[in-house]
Amino acid sequence: MKSLFEERGGTYSKVGSYQIPNLAMDPQPEGEIGIWGQHRKQYLKEHRKGTYNAMLLQGTLTQHLIDTNAEALDLMDTLVKQMAKAEGVTEELKRRDQLGWVGRMNNVRNRAEEIVRNELIHV
Question: What does the radius of gyration of the chain's CA atoms come to, in whole angstroms?
Answer without folding.
Answer: 24
